[in-house]
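Researcher: I'm preparing a figure for a lab meeting and need a structural model of a single chain. I don't have an experimental structure, so a prediction will have to do for now. The sequence is pasted below. Please return the structure as tokens so I can convert it later.
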Amino acid sequence: MNLIKYREIFITKMMVSKNLDIKSIKAYTSDLNHLIDFTNGKVTQESIMSYIQYLTQTYKDTTVTRKLITIKMFLRFIEEETKWTNPLDKYKIKIKKEKRLPKTIPVKDVSKLLDYMYDNLNQTTTSFAYFQAVRDLCIIDLLLSTGMRIAEVSNLKLEDIITSERVLLVHGKGKKQRLLYISSLETWNNLKTWLSIRKKLKVNHDYLFVNKFHDTLSIYGIENIFTKYRDKSEISPSATPHYLRHTFATNLLANGADLRSVQELLGHSSISTTEIYTEVNTVRKKIVLKKYNLRNKLTRNS
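Model: Understood. Here is the structure written out token by token.
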């Protein structure tokens, strides 16, 4: 059986049927290449089980789960295309994932980041530096104020801005749309400032954010922008742009927002995905422990 041949057909089918982006296609291809290399292209019950054992001993549970999903889909595809017997048919393989808490940026560090960006903006001496400073501030501020994913920010178009309502039409995962109100007047003003600059540029597309060549700003461009200001403002070197999304959600819950509303704002399909932010919210836990913990009443008389 020519697994390489079926790999190409499978990837093509996935591209067409699921409308995958380049990042997803690369992930599928990488997973299948890894499987074929490990098994030398001989997919048997023994080689598959040996491969799964290798994965569980080598990779994080999230990576193992992703690779297993790809493998199962691939083998099922081959089974449908041929009379071949799928070696995984007899087994139900479940990987118990560790429940990792979302990482956030402390409020003081968020303030430090924004302060640096405003100082940088005020100290610009060239039109290009001003262009970059305004754009970068607008992007970081939107990530913080709305909890959008960086891909969602990258995909924003001019037509997605409902100026009269101070609302953005966000195109989320699975082609799901949601409306986000920009509650901070400062964030809204930063966006308007960027729009006034963008209007003067020679741009031949409708995407909101552009790079120095006036092409669409990619997710990697946004990651680089965040990394640049993260390092210069000297906040946690491990922070990523996604930490801003986590910070947004965690602070909403800490300030009294209900879980269902936070789910809708984040664009989560399932509320169980949103519930993990309640684990990060220490405010509620502190109140409960201060009020009800028995140990608080067991004081020693000196």
